Amino acid sequence: VTSNMTSLVVLNLPGDMAGREMELVQHCRAQNFGIWPTLSAPVQIRIGILNQLNRRAIEEIATRFAQAIRDLGGKANQADINDVLHSHYGVACAAE
Q1: Strand partners, 48
Q2: Residue 96 pLDDT > 60, yes or no?
Q3: Could you tell me if residue 73 is left (phi over 0), alpha (psi between -120 and 50 degrees) or otherwise beta?
Q4: Which end of the chain is more exposed for a tag (fewer CB within 10 A), N or C?
Q5: What is the pLDDT of residues 1-57, one digit of tens each?
Q6: Per-residue CA distances from 33 to 22, 30, 83, 86 (Å)
Q7: For residues 78 and 65, what is the distance between their CA atoms, to the nearest angstrom?
Q8: Hey, what long-range contacts does 21-25 have (CB within 8 A, 24 or more apart)?
């Protein structure tokens, strides 16, 4: 997570997903989980309107995004994600 804006979470795609951004977007959308990539380098995924979501919803979004990366053979460490969420919220995140 590379943004601290209350309305936006920005996630850098892992290097092993380079060039597969649209595949990831299509995979997520097929599961009714809409994401969109940026044109920046490194490629990022932005999930917006988070100021309208609660902590549990944001945790679910981050977890689903990481699982989608793993589904496509990419690397996304859930423990690292939970650490970032814990750091932001100041309490432990429940494991899925």
Answers
A1: 8
A2: no
A3: left
A4: C
A5: 445 555 566 677 788 888 888 888 888 888 887 766 666 666 666 665 555 677 888
A6: 14, 7, 23, 23
A7: 10
A8: 23/72, 24/68, 24/69, 24/72, 24/74
Contact 69, 88 (CB under 8 A): no
Please give the torsion angle defined by the CA atoms of residues 7, 78, 68 and 54, in that order, rounded to the nearest 10 degrees: -30
- The CA-CA-CA angle for residues 84, 87, 92, to 5°, reads 90
Q: Quote the CA–CA distance of 62 and 47 in Å, as a whole number.
A: 9
Q: Is the pTM of this model over 0.85?
A: no
pLDDT in tens, 49-80: 555 677 888 888 888 889 999 999 999 999 99
Q: Phi and psi of 45, rounded to 5°?
A: -110, 135
